[in-house]
User: Fold RBR-type E3 ubiquitin transferase from Triticum turgidum subsp. durum.
Amino acid sequence: MINKLGKHEDKEKYARFALRAYVESRKKTKWCPAPDCTCAVEFVSDVNYDVSCNCTFRFCWNCTEEAHRPVNCETVSKWILKNSAESENMNWILANSKPCPKCQRPIEKNQGCMHMTCTPPCKFEFCWLCLGSWVEHGERTGGFYACNRYESAKKEGVYDEAEARRERAKHSLERYMHYYERWASNQTSRQKAIADLQKAEKEQLAKLTDIYGIPETQLKFIIEAWSQIIECRRVLQWTYAYGYYLEDKVKSGFFEYLQGCYFCAFTEVVHNSEGEAESGLERLHQCAEKDLLAFLPFSKHDTTEDHPSPAEFGEFRVKLAGLTSITRNYFENLVRALEDGLEDVQCAGEAATSSKATNSKKAGAKGKAAKKQPSRSSSDHSDDTWPCERCTFLNPSSADACTACDKQRY
Assistant:
């Protein structure tokens, strides 16, 4: 009836409504949540909720947020709410300011002097330390950079509760900022990698074809490398939300090693190093971004420069494809471990405790007759692990192949 009697605009409107009704009536189809995307996505996986639209946007089928493995939807919801809530603003105010004793507006100290003046119309002058009127201060109370009244009252415990509350707020804020800044940094790096992928597809593959005569279909290893970098950045981004809500200290220590940092109490940096995930991704990123430039012309119109030989490009291809495979395998194992709640960590800890107890009994039985063994450097790996020759990942002694790159041990 519509097709016979309706106007062209009415037919289009009817078709849109019919399509929308069809999509929304099916449990296995949803509209892509990406801005300006008009595609519908069908859910066919039975492994996880991550789905990908034709527009390249990946999202979680369950909560329709951006794809967030290995973090569950509940954690994502809490993290997004925390990032947008006023709670961290209040923590910052509590940690970095004090209320004016007269009007109670928060005042931030921006210089070393303890003489504070509230903003108009209040203009009350007071001491930053004891919050007393500045009229009662001077050389006799310690001058502009100290306060004898505060020190005396502090010894008597007058400010204990307020200072403790301020320290707790400061600690909470520093911990949150540590995770949030790295979460946001990986998000930015992923967006940059997406732009680099598009540049490779539109420009670099054609240039390499002109230089080396290789069809673009045989240069897809570069696209695969960039796609893997984008996926790894996404995983790393959400591991920081995972770590923020991880309360188990044993699991937290192992998680931070896998992720890339060692921290003590989240305030004092004890050791910063690129962990297994971070270092593997950086090697791949370096190869795809920097090493590839050696095979491309420095300028669009320069055709006289000397390029590396086809043999060297072949070596680069093997290297980049190998790093892509290694990084993919490691991150898949990382995601699987985090989704399982790092269950193996507790088992490994119990096994290590049992092993130590057994070794202690054996050592006690041998007594002084035991021959002294040469000491081993702390940098060497223990007997419980062995390093992979290809990717240097430390594997448990029971493993016959590397869990990161699948290389056989012997």
Observations:
- The first strand starts at residue 29 and ends at 31.
- The chain is about 50% helix and 10% strand.
- The chain has three domains: 2-67, 100-158, 176-300+307-343+381-396.
